[in-house]
Design a protein that fits this description.
Layout (H helix, E strand, L loop, with lengths): L1 E5 L6 H9 L16 E10 L15 E2 L3 E10 L14 H7 L5 E7 L15 H34 L3 H8 L7 H11 L11 H15 L2 E6 L6 H11 L5 E3 L2 H12 L3 E2 L8 E2 L6 H18 L4 H12 L2 E6 L16 E4 L4 H8 L1 H5 L1 E6 L5 E2 L9 E7 L1
Parallel strand pairs: 1-4, 1-5, 5-6, 6-7, 10-14
Antiparallel strand pairs: 2-4, 3-4, 8-9, 10-11, 12-13, 12-14
Helix pairs in contact: 1-8, 3-4, 3-6, 4-5, 5-6
Length: 393
């Protein structure tokens, strides 16, 4: 699973990326500081299964506090996008090529409105920023479709090819499936048997619908602790009522995680508070930390960065966390509940078996629910935080 960070230059993408992953990346106050994509691992929170089973898990990847399991997800930070990127302006071509494999987008918006459309210091408009980026992404999909539309639709109609299959082929590099195409057709009530009769507006609506389904997006309203940010946040929510918008301060999160790494404070990402190690900090450091507490944590309940990741995976991408768990809850090395996988909602026990390995799916006999100790069949629908043991022949 890959979460792509997008936004105009200097919106705080690289700061958000570093705050979420603690990867060593360049953070600079000038446009296009990021050129090549940065990749790193962030984490999403899952209520720990081990606390219910009276054990303490030892994750192979991620970590567990005994209360919360942090499950890794991949993040990608790409070059800033400016208007005209879909036609190659700025680093548009590089930007869009990098985003092909992303499962969804997190748009980082400078909600303080202190950078202009090109990311330079000045007056900005968060509403225009969102409209610009949405427009460029929609044009990206539309340009792919328009290049082949006339010839492809004539062929589909004359040879009675499967419309969904042929369109999915054109967008295969963007993870578009036949089911995605069919879903958009139904939603827009478009006839796949006569695509040559579609109007230009219908073609544009179709490509836009395809983009929204296959690359869903939420907005991280960054720099929420800056003057004027809260007012801009309310305006943004009014303008985009159908988009999930989460206020955050990536600067604050990065400061707290950096302080925790140097033992100045005790802090776990996403927490509403931290504990200062009094013998480790000086008065200047303490004052800076208290400003973060007063201006961010006390007002928002957290820095918002962790909420953005959690909502991206569990709300937009609709994933559920499943723990493979044998009768002893441990692997061959004695690690307790070592793994946690993020599967699509409505996955079955057999889907999980195949997710683990093709041979396990092929030789599936039954599954055991570790909570109830009851056997379940291959069509058994899994629930978030299930612990499942797969039995094979």
């Amino acid at each position: 699973m890959l979460l792509g960070l997008v936004g105009k230059p200097s919106s705080g993408k690289s700061t958000f990326f570093k705050a979420a992953t603690m990867a060593d990346v360049l953070i600079a106050s000038y446009p296009f500081a990021t050129i090549e994509p940065n990749h790193g691992m962030g984490y999403v929170r899952v209520d720990a299964l081990c606390k219910e089973l009276n054990v303490r898990c030892s994750p192979r990847t991620g970590f567990c506090t005994g209360v919360t399991r942090f499950v890794p997800v991949e993040l990608m930070d790409v070059a800033g996008l400016v208007e005209g990127a879909s036609t190659g302006k700025g680093l548009g071509n590089k930007f869009l090529d990098s985003l092909r494999q992303a499962d969804m987008f997190i748009q980082i918006v400078d909600i303080s409105g202190t950078t202009d459309a090109e990311g330079k210091e000045g007056v900005g408009d968060p509403i225009k920023d969102v409209k610009m980026l949405e427009g460029e992404l929609d044009k990206w999909y539309q340009s792919i479709l328009e290049k082949v539309w006339a010839k492809l639709t004539r062929t589909i109609q004359s040879t009675k090819l499967n419309f969904a299959k042929e369109i999915a082929k054109q967008f295969s590099g963007l993870k578009v499936t036949e089911d995605d195409v069919r879903e958009v057709l139904i939603k827009l009530k478009l006839d796949p048997l006569t695509p040559t009769k579609w109007t230009n507006e219908e073609v544009a609506n179709f490509s836009r619908g395809l983009r929204h389904i296959t690359k869903p997006m939420l907005i991280a309203a960054n720099k929420i602790d800056k003057p004027g940010a809260l007012e801009n946040l309310e305006k943004l929510k009014e303008s985009f009522p159908d988009i999930l918008i989460i206020p955050c301060s990536s600067d604050a999160e990065l400061s707290l995680r950096s302080a925790a790494n140097t033992n100045l404070i005790e802090y776990i990402q996403g927490s509403a508070s931290f504990k200062i190690n009094e013998d480790k900090v000086n008065e200047k450091q303490k004052a800076a930390l208290m400003l973060i507490k007063e201006n961010v944590l006390d007002k928002l309940g957290s820095t918002g960065v962790q909420e953005v990741l959690d909502e991206s995976v569990f709300n937009l991408l609709k994933r559920i966390a499943i723990f493979p768990a044998g009768s002893k809850l441990a692997d061959s090395k004695g690690n307790i509940l070592p793994d946690c996988f993020l599967l699509k909602e409505n996955s079955t026990a057999l889907d999980f078996a195949y997710h683990l390995h093709t041979d396990i799916g092929d030789n599936f006999i039954k599954a055991i629910d570790v909570r109830t100790k009851q056997p379940v069949g291959k069509d058994h629908p899994l629930k978030h935080r299930d612990g499942i043991e797969i039995m094979t022949s």
